[in-house]
Amino acid sequence: MSSLPLCLHNKANPLIACSLYAHCQTTLVDGYSRICVLDHVCQVFDKMPKRDVASWNALIDGLAQESRSRDGLGLFKKMRVEGVRAN
Question: What range does the domain containing 21 cover?
């Protein structure tokens, strides 16, 4: 079952609906990346209280899909600095 419907239930502010669910926030990052809404992707990602490798991967992939590989590489380096191991 996808977490996206739960996240989108609160249309005014999906961050409130997802504040307790890291996997839900990662789903938002992935979903916004897929529809090329990178400003929302970065907003969700920046406000995530805890980022795991899946959330980093979702944003890096979104940047790569938008031909922003340099930004994606920079984010990968930041991920490593923050101690998140790549998989």
Answer: 4-81
* Separation between Cα atoms, residue 46 and residue 3, nearest integer Å: 19
- Does some domain include residue 87? no
CA 17 to chain centre: 15
Contact predicate 60/75, CB 8 Å: yes
The more confident residue out of 5 and 74 is: 74
Q: Is 43 among the domain residues?
A: yes
Q: Is this model's pTM higher than 0.85 or not? A: no
Is residue 74 a part of any domain in this protein? yes
Contact 27, 2 (CB under 8 A): yes
